[in-house]
Amino acid sequence: MNPLLEVRGLTVRFPTRHGAFTAVDGIDIVVERDEVLGIVGESGSGKSVAMLAIMGLLPWSAQVLAERMAFDGRELQTLAPKQRRQLVGKDIAMVFQEPMSSLNPCFTVGWQVGEALATHMKLDRDARRRRVIELLEQVGIPDAARRASAFPHQLSGGMCQRVMIAMALACKPRLLIADEPTTALDVTIQAQILELLMTLRREAGMALVLITHDLGVVAETADRVIVQYAGRQVESGPAETLFSDPHHPYTAALLDALPERADGRRLDAIPGLVPGAHDRPPGCLFAPRCRFVQPRCAIAPGAADDTLGRALCHTPLLQGHPMEPRS
């Protein structure tokens, strides 16, 4: 059986005055049915851009290339625009970052949730109203009938995030992409939103892609994890294996920065910043920040293979120690 989502060699470039900037560089994403895939990395790692490319929501100036980009066996790149629009929002849905700015301030939340129902389900006005109230109740919004007539600024950040989830679930998608669903929410609300997503996923039997920079969230929810850095996929594998024995120095550094691993000592921080458009090193992009860097790392990036989590490194780690350099 085909994976629900299969993406091979995805590359996304944006034109700039100084030439094309590669925001996503040849990554592979496979999501099985009923699977939770976590995609982690710092801001600027290309996580959101990759998902927006799959959704077909990047601006016209973006150049999207892929060897394969298929949903349930259908190649997305060859679909007519009308066919792509019928798929996106119905079978593939996305919860976007920053719900306060993602919702339209000029329309009630009920109208915005109902828009997807009118577009994809062809429900009449009364049926849409009933379904909207049902969805708002499903995501835990109290007094749903009254809240449906509220505008986004009249709701809290947590309520707006629940509205965004209701919008994404309106047409019962088979794949839900949640982009930083807990950003800017307090800890209590974060836990509620995550629990809600996992409960709804189980009830609907859908696959979930969870984009985050919070490894604690991934540890609690994901079956598999992809680690991205500066647009490249540096490691991937089962969540349990990746957390117990990371193979790329960047993954290890992220895990070392978790508060629960400090054990009373000062937290380990990763020095420097993710390289941007004009300061990308010629070899391994993580080399300037890596504590295991070697001279060959400044010349060329490491080559990934099918062992050790496909770690993109010349000397991948094994139980925290670098292995012999790959030939």
Task: Spell out the blueprint of helices and strands.
Elements: E1 5-16, E2 19-31, E3 36-40, H1 47-55, E4 63-65, E5 68-71, E6 74-75, H2 81-87, E7 92-95, H3 99-102, H4 109-121, H5 125-138, H6 144-147, H7 157-169, E8 175-179, H8 187-204, E9 207-212, H9 215-221, E10 224-229, E11 232-238, H10 239-244, H11 249-256, E12 317-318, E13 321-322
Parallel strand pairs: 3-9, 3-10, 7-8, 8-9
Antiparallel strand pairs: 1-2, 1-4, 1-5, 5-6, 10-11, 12-13
Helix pairs in contact: 4-5, 4-7, 5-7, 7-8
Structure described in brief:
31% of the residues lie in helices and 22% in strands. The protein has eleven helices and 13 strands.
Write up what this structure looks like.
The chain is an alpha/beta fold and 327 residues long. The protein has a domain at 229-322. The chain is 31% helix and 22% strand. The protein is built from 11 helices and 13 strands. The protein has helices at residues 47-55, 81-87, 99-102, 109-121, 125-138, 144-147, 157-169, 187-204, 215-221, 239-244, 249-256; strands at 5-16, 19-31, 36-40, 63-65, 68-71, 74-75, 92-95, 175-179, 207-212, 224-229, 232-238, 317-318, 321-322. The strands form 3 sheets. The protein has a 6-stranded mixed sheet with strand order 7-8-9-3-10-11, sandwiched between helices. Strands 1, 2, 4, 5 and 6 form a 5-stranded antiparallel sheet that branches. Strand 12 (317-318) and strand 13 form a beta hairpin. Helix 4 (109-121) packs parallel to helix 7, helix 5 packs across helix 7 (157-169) and helix 7 runs parallel beside helix 8. The longest helix is centred in the middle third of the chain and has 18 residues, at 187-204. The two termini are 36 Å apart.
